[in-house]
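User: Second chain of the day. Same drill as before.
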Amino acid sequence: MRELVIVGAGGHGRETLDIVEAVNAVEPTWTFLGFVDDGPEAPERIERRGAAVLGPIERLADHPTSYALGIGASETRAGLDDQLTAWGAEAVSLIHPRASLGADNRLGPGVLLAAGARVTTNVTLGRHVHLNVNAVVSHDCVVGDHATLSPGVHLNGEVTIGDRAFLGTGAIVLPGCRVGHDALVGAGAVVTTDVAAGACVKGVPAR
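Assistant: Same format as last time:
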């Protein structure tokens, strides 16, 4: 059993704990020590999970250990990744037992696949990429570091997603399209053409 801390005690952090608990129910793997968070909200929700907030994130500077980023915001994850790496903490990937991962895929450190997430074949997921519940990444896609796929996002074949891009719930990206670094794709949007770096698009088709 490896010790594990989740960075972030909000809703996404508690969903990350769901993945840890589901993994342990199949095969005991992680000894969950608790959350670290600079300003935890709704502590009663943490207490109901039987978990503890160990202190601020800086605690990992003195006690580096294996960690998962339970943070939904792509840009925040990127900054924390740099900080925690400098402190010597080790990012781990978490894959829910009800997620599916095909053959010939490459996953960077810190990847998170929630329940129902689907990754088919010849897919590259960068550092700390998060696939939320029922997100789908089809063949030959590349998803850059710290990108976020919200629940129900569908990437069709040969899609490229830039670093720190954020795709809202239910967004669809059609085959061959590129979404640039730091772009935001709104919930329910359908991306039919390339999205420029830093752009914010929404609607059907996304504009």
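The two ends are 48 Å apart (CA to CA).

User: Great, on to the next one.
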